[in-house]
């Protein structure tokens, strides 16, 4: 992540020499998750996010944005309004490190710094890489769920995945070269393991680590010590992809040279 920040700064310094189309900024906001432990609420917030952005404006209507973001998401069956999920009683949290490139399309011509048409809605889509590490708290300690192999898969799942970001927002030229952006963006991750939950309940006899088994089926914590997870039955919701989302507010500075791109 630190190398990517350095690369973005070097690109920005090099761009300043020509600098009629570049924006550099920061963004922060809320993060959410939808998957096996939150199957229905696409607007549920469970953490925070922050990041840096570098935008290249081709013209007043189209731009491309590179960003790096850090966030945390979490989920817990205990907060569900559905009894079946509360009985399952699984939980997780995971830090996210995302690198993304998206194309943006403005609905109206947006020309920061020239005092003309300072507001526009926009949509975007692109590609991202996300690194994740699902964890859970148990007996006042934190455990990495991936290393415990809670579903006893033959091969450990990867700790990173490709994601497809898409969303919409609003750009507003506050004053001069300063602009504000507010957007809602969803990321379809090409993994079902952001929450560690995907496949089937494993047999208790397949675990050599008691912590691994304890975190694979936590229903006994709510059912008098009796686990309800039957080995070989579905542990997750059966869908192939988890989703995470960012609700962010950003501020950026546009570098405008004498030959501005809107002239």
Quick description:
The chain has helices spanning 2-15, 83-88, 145-148, 210-216; strands at residues 22-34, 45-57, 62-76, 91-106, 119-132, 135-138, 141-144, 160-175, 178-189, 243-255. With 263 residues, the chain is mainly β. The strands form 2 sheets. The chain has an 8-stranded antiparallel β-barrel. The protein has a two-stranded antiparallel sheet with strand order 6-7.
Please tag this protein with its features.
263 residues; mainly beta; Porin; eight-stranded antiparallel β-barrel; two-stranded antiparallel ribbon; 4 helices; 10 strands; elongated
What would you say the CATH architecture is?
A: Beta Barrel
Using the CA coordinates, give the radius of gyration: 22 Å
For the biggest sheet, the summary is: 8 strands, antiparallel, barrel
The CATH class turns out to be Mainly Beta
Overall number of domains: 1
The SSE string, one letter per element, is HEEEHEEEEHEEHE
- Helix fraction, binned, reads 10-25%
CATH topology: Porin
What structural class do you assign from the helix and strand content?
A: mainly beta
What overall form do the CA principal axes indicate?
Answer: elongated
- Let me know the number of strands: 10
Strand order, largest beta sheet: 1-2-3-4-5-8-9-10
Distance between the termini: 37 Å
Strand content: over 45%
- What is the residue-mean pLDDT, rounded to a whole number? 89
* Uncertain residue segments: 9-19
Count of individual helical segments = 4
């Amino acid at each position: 992540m630190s190398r990517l920040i350095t690369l973005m700064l070097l690109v920005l310094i090099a761009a300043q020499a020509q600098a009629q189309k570049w924006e550099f900024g920061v963004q922060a906001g809320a993060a959410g998750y939808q998957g096996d432990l939150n199957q229905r609420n696409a607007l549920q917030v469970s953490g925070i996010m922050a990041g840096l952005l570098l935008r290249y404006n081709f013209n007043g209507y189209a731009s491309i944005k590179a960003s790096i973001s850090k966030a945390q998401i979490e989920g817990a069956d205990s907060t569900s309004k559905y009894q079946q999920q509360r009985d399952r009683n699984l939980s997780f949290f995971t830090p996210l490190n995302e690198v993304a490139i998206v194309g943006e399309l403005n609905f109206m011509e947006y020309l920061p710094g020239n005092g003309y048409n300072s507001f526009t809605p926009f949509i975007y889509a692109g590609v991202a890489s996300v690194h994740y590490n699902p964890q859970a708290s148990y007996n006042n300690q934190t455990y990495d769920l991936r290393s415990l192999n809670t579903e006893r898969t033959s091969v450990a799942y990867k700790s990173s995945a490709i994601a497809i970001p898409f969303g919409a927002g609003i750009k507003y030229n506050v004053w001069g070269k300063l602009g504000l952006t507010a957007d809602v963006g969803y990321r379809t991750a090409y993994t079902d393991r952001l929450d560690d939950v995907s496949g089937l309940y494993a047999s208790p006899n397949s675990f050599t680590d008691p912590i691994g088994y304890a975190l694979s089926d936590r229903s006994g914590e709510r059912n008098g010590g009796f686990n309800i997870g039957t080995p070989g039955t579905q542990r997750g919701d059966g869908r192939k992809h988890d989703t995470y989302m960012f609700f962010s507010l950003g501020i950026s500075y546009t570098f405008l040279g004498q030959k501005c791109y809107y002239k």
